[in-house]
Amino acid sequence: MAEFQEVMQQAKRICKYMDNKCTLCPLTTKPFCQMGASEMENFADTEHVIMAWAAEHPEPVYPTWGEWLMSIGVINGVHPHGAIDALGNLKQPIPADIAMKLGLQPKGES
Predict the structure, then answer these.
(1) What is the pLDDT of residue 55?
(2) Using an 8 Å Cβ cutoff, are 70 and 21 in contact?
(3) Strand, coil or helix: 6
(4) Which residue in 103, 69, 108, 99 sits closest to 85, CA to CA?
(5) Nearest to 34 by CA among 11, 68, 61
(6) How many CA atoms lie within 13 A of 67 on its CB side?
(7) Number of C-beta neighbours around residue 46 at 10 A
(8) What pLDDT does 20 receive?
(9) Distance between CA 70 and CA 60 in Å, rounded?
(10) Which of 7, 75, 81, 104 sits at 20 to 30 Å (Cα–Cα) from 56?
(11) What SS3 class is residue 67?
């Protein structure tokens, strides 16, 4: 079984993706967050549906902090401390919520 935290995170993504229009939900016509244990007859089946949906709808990947800082001219390609800066690891992708606030598009989208 996948890690519980990952399954729940993907279940939350389903709700957000469906814009809380539960009739479109691949799990049920009732909101996942309102389902009780008795309504999920088989937890393994529920997990399978959630993780299959997640595989079909991968999360967008945004540029790394280093790529973004280079694109706006804050740093150049040569950094004296390698990938570490006061901001932390510049090789980490920018989280989606922050990337959206910065007006960044996911990689592969224009």
Answers:
(1) 92
(2) no
(3) helix
(4) 69
(5) 11
(6) 13
(7) 18
(8) 66
(9) 21
(10) 104
(11) helix
CB atoms within 10 A of CB 52: 12
Q: Determine the pLDDT at residue 83.
A: 46
Report whether 23 contacts 68 (CB < 8 A): no
Segments making up each domain of the chain, as ranges: 4-56, 65-101
* Cα distances (angstroms) measured from residue 102 to each of 18, 95, 98: 24, 11, 6
Whether the pLDDT of residue 13 is over 80: the answer is: yes
- The answer to whether residues 15 and 53 touch, using CB atoms and an 8 Å cutoff, is no
- The span from the CA of 105 to the CA of 24, in Å, is 26
Cα 60 to Cα 108: distance, rounded to the nearest angstrom: 9
